[in-house]
Amino acid sequence: MSTRKERIWRRQAENTGGENHSVSDRALWVLISLLRFVVQPVAQLRIALVHCRNTGRFLSTTEFHLRQRAYRGDSSATLDIFVSGTPINKYILSMLSAREHVIRSDRLWRLLNRLKRRYPNHPIWVDLTHTGWMQGPVWETPGPQLVLTEGMHERGAALRRELGIPEGARHVCIFARDADYRESLDNVLDPTDYWATDDFRNCDIANYMKAAEYLAEDGYWVVRMGFHSPRVRLPKKRHSQILDYASDIRPGLADPEFADMYLPATARFFLGCTSGLYLYASIFGVPIAYANMVPFLECGRTNNDVFIWKKCFDQNSGRYLEYAHAIAAGMDSDWLSVEELQAYKRRGLEIHENSAEEILDLTCEILMRLDGKWQQGLEENQLREDFGRVFPRHGSHETTYRGHMCTAFLRRHRRLFVKPVNDLLVSEAPN
User: Fold this and answer.
1) Rounded Cα–Cα distance for residues 115 and 95 (Å)
2) What is the signed CA dihedral for 200, 207, 227, 49, rounded to 10 degrees?
3) Which of 136, 154, 158, 366 makes an SS bond possible with 400, Cβ 3.0 to 4.6 Å?
4) What is the strand order of the sheet 426-428 is part of?
C-alpha cells in the first residue's frame, strides 16, 4: 500500500521528460547488465539509489527498507548496492555503510538516476519510495536498524557538555517549521512561489514555548532544532534549560551534522510537526509528539507516538469545521496540492495551527505515557470511539495506524469529532 505522496514521487521518478542519454549512460547500463548476469548464479544484484539530499526521504525510505527486510526475514540471495551522492547527513550514511554495501559518488548517482528514470520498472532497482507511513508492524516490530556507535556516544557526551547539559540529565528536542525550512538544502524557493508564503505545514515556535517551559521546570533540557537560522528566535527571557540550538549554537559548530543527528537520536522524545526533521529521532526509536499535523494521515508510526491535528476554520460561519468534513475534503491523505489548497481558500476555509495550550496538553500526555503513569478510563474510551468513527480507516491500533490522538485534544474539541449525518455541522470556534 502506497500513500499519496509516495505515488507522486514514483510518478516523478518515472517521468523521463525527454532526456537524452549519452554514450556513457548506455555503456554503464550494458556494464551493469553484464555484471548482474555474471553474479546471477550466486546472488541477485540490486541497486538502491539513496534519496541523499532530502531529509525526510533520506531518513524514512532508507530506514523503512531496512526494517521491511528485517520484518520479512528475507534470507534470499540478494546483493544490494546502495549508491549515494553527498548526503544531507554523513553520519546517517556512515551507519548505513557499517552494515550495507555503500558507494558514495555524486557522478555515479547522477548517472544511475538517469538510467533509473529511463528503466524505472527494471528489477535491478530497489524500491526506495516507501516512507514507513501506514506500515504499522512492518515499521514498529523490527525496531531501529541504524545503530549509534560507541565513538558517536563519546562524541555526543562531549557535545552535551559543550551545550551545558549535565551528565545524566534528559533532554527533549522541539521543532516548528517556518517559511525558510527546506527538506533539501539544494532547494532555492522562489519568494513569489505559492509554497514560499502559503505552505500549510508552517507553524509558530511561540506556541511551543509553554510546553518548553513546562519541560524545563520538570528538569528536562529543551533543545530547539533546525538546519537554518530561523526568522523567529526564542525569547531572551526564558528558562535557562531551553537552548536555541538553531539560532545560537548550530551556526558556530564546526560540524553541525553530528549534532543535527545525535541530539534527536538520544532525546527523551521529539516535539515536532509535519517536517521530516523529526525522523532523526523516529528512526532511532525515540517517541514523537506530533503537533500541527495536516493532512491527517501523517500521524504516528509507533504505539509510543501521540499527535494532534491542525483545525479547519470556516470563515463563512466563523466556526471550526468538523473533522469528518475536512476528511471528506481530502485531508486524510499525506499531501495537499496547490490546487486543493486554493480550492479550500475559495470556500473560505483556513488551516489553523495548534494553540500553546493544545501543545502543552500533548506534551503532558506523552510524558505520562512514557513514565508509565497514563490511565485511560471510560471517558477516554468513548473519546477514542468518537475518533474511530470519524477516521474509521485508522481508528484502531490493531490496524496500520499506530499513534494516539491526544486525549485532552479529543476532549477539548469533542464536537469536532462528531460524525455529521446529513447537513454540514460546525462547532463554535474558541474565543
Assistant:
1) 27
2) -40
3) 136
4) 349-352, 311-314, 319-321, 426-428
Task: Dig out the grid coordinates for 80 from the structure.
Answer: 544490494
Q: Give pTM, 2 decimals.
A: 0.90
What is the spatial distance between Cα 294 and Cα 329, in angstroms, rounded to a whole number? 13
Nearest to 13 by CA among 107, 135, 115: 115
Query: What pLDDT score does 12 carry?
Result: 66
Q: What domains lie within the chain, and their CATH numbers?
A: 4-140 (no CATH), 150-428 (3.40.50.2000)
DSSP 7: H
Cα(100)–Cα(177) distance, rounded to whole angstroms? 33
- Tell me the per-residue pLDDT of 247-263, one tens digit each, with 9 for 90 and over: 999 999 999 999 999 99
User: Nearest-CA neighbor of 200 among 340, 13, 30?
Assistant: 340
How many whole angstroms separate alpha carbon 231 and alpha carbon 79? 46
SS3 81: strand
Q: Which helix (H) or strand (E) holds 414?
A: none
Provide the b/e sequence for 386-395 (b: ≥16 CB within 10 Å). Answer: bbbebbeebb
What confidence score (pLDDT) does residue 336 get?
80
Question: How many C-beta atoms surround the C-beta of residue 162 within 10 A?
Answer: 11
Instruction: State in Å, rounded, how far the first CA of the chain is from the last one.
Output: 41
153, 167 in Cβ contact below 8 A? no
CA–CA distance, 175 with 173 (Å, rounded to integer): 7
> Residue 36 is placed in which grid cell?
548482474
Cell readout for 270 is 521529539
Antiparallel, parallel or unpaired: β 311-314 and 319-321: antiparallel
Q: Is 264 helix (H, G, I), strand (E, B) or coil?
A: helix
The answer to whether residues 358 and 273 touch, using CB atoms and an 8 Å cutoff, is: no
Please list, in sequence order, all residues whose beta carbon lies within 8 angstroms of the beta carbon of residue 39, skipping any fewer than 6 positions away: 45, 79
